[in-house]
Each structure stands twice: as structure tokens, then as C-alpha cells.
Amino acid sequence: MKTILKLENVTKKYSLGSTVVHALRGVNIELEKGKYYSIVGPSGSGKSTLLHILGCMDLPSTGEVWINSRPVHCLNETQLTKIRAVELGFIFQSFHLNPILTVLENVSIALQFLGIGKAAAQERAREWLDRVGLDHRLDHYPSELSGGERQRVAIARALVKKPQFVLADEPTGNLDSKTGQEIISLLRKINREAGVTIVQVTHDREIAEMGDEIISFRDGRILQ
Ligand SMILES: Nc1ncnc2c1ncn2[C@@H]1O[C@H](COP(=O)(O)OP(=O)(O)O)[C@@H](O)[C@H]1O
Ligand SMILES: [Mg+2]
Question: Which of 23, 104, 169, 185 could disulfide-link 138, Cβ–Cβ 3.0 to 4.6 Å?
């Protein structure tokens, strides 16, 4: 087993005027490369905060974050931005596609940002769009797609750069339950075939159980 992500005594507090919100109260976890994790817990328990810290979008107040044995809690914003762009894939509840780009462009642009030429980027984007079953929608715009199709585009965009791991915050939150299960089945298949680690947040028990391991969260802590 190889550890890909490790948190040690991570806390996160937000100050809102004179009140302090303790979003994470000492989190210790070690995630294994290639596994599919589901984080579950009530609203406000700190799930998104945890995902933001795993995704280098935010730093902990105290504690340590390690990605592939590399300490990221002491990096600066420029270094964190680079890790996010190069090494991590993100999938959001509301898809976050660019409405003025086609399906193909939404995926290929992620590679062009990394300095890959347009033709090569589009070739790789086509391969991934084929894998997620959207080869017949390349020239469509997001507004012309169903919710499930939009999330497939987001999956292709997250995976096309061959990330170390993929983070998904409520990826089925805007989908009906049948479409949601299809999307998670697809992510599960990609997880197995490509060996990419996936961490998803969900409040849907059935969706959570489709992964390898469930991490239960309450009041900023992991329940044992
Ligand atoms: N940017 C922020 N500023 C202030 N408080 C925040 C911020 N983000 C989250 N919180 C608070 O931290 C707690 C955990 O939030 P969050 O991680 O979004 O929970 P979950 O995703 O489990 O619903 C909540 O009490 C929330 O109100
Ligand atoms: Mg949340």
C-alpha cells in the first residue's frame, strides 16, 4: 500500500467578526493510492472544508498536509496553484463548465493551460470524451447538454491531465438518482482502470457505498 494523502492534526477555524467557527477540530487521515473514498456527514460538519484542504484550495489553521510524502502546508499560493493545475482533478456539484466553450474545448483547455499544444490537447480530450460516452457531443455547448452529460464533461476534464487524485464535492447533488448512480459507476470504472485515487463527498448513503471506504464526519472530526 502506498499513501497518497496524509493529514496530521489538521484544524481549521474561520473568524466571522467576533465569532470563531471551528470547521475542523483535529483530523488525522491517511489515504491509499488507487482507492475510492466517500466522505459522509451532516451539513456543516466540515466535509467541504476538508476537501478544500485536500485540494490545496485552502490551508489548515494548524496541522500538516502531505501529498505523496511532500509537505504542502508550508507552500505559498503560487506553489499551491501549480499543484492544483498540474496534479489534481476537481468535480463539482454544479459542474462549473465554461458556457462559451464547446464540450471539446472545455476539456482540452485544461491541457492547454499546462502548455500542451492545441492539436495534442484536443486529441487527448477526444479520447477522454470517448471514454465517458460523449464522442457524439464534441461540438455542443454545455447549455445543450443534460445534467448527466455535463457531469461527464467535468469528469473528462478532471481526468484528462492524469491527476494524482480527483476530488468530487457532491458530484451527484444536482442529478436525479438514476443519473447519479450512472455517474458514480463511471467514476468507479475509471478509478479501477486508471488507478486514480478518488475522494468524494456525498450525503447519499447509496452513492457513498459505491466506493471502497466510507469516512464519517461529525462536528469537524472523523467518527471512528
Ligand atoms: N469561508 C467560511 N467562512 C466562515 N465559515 C465557514 C466558511 N466555510 C465554512 N464555514 C463554516 O464551517 C463549518 C463547516 O462547513 P463545511 O465544511 O462547508 O461543511 P459541510 O460541507 O460538511 O456542509 C460550517 O459551520 C460553516 O458554516
Ligand atoms: Mg459541503
Answer: 104
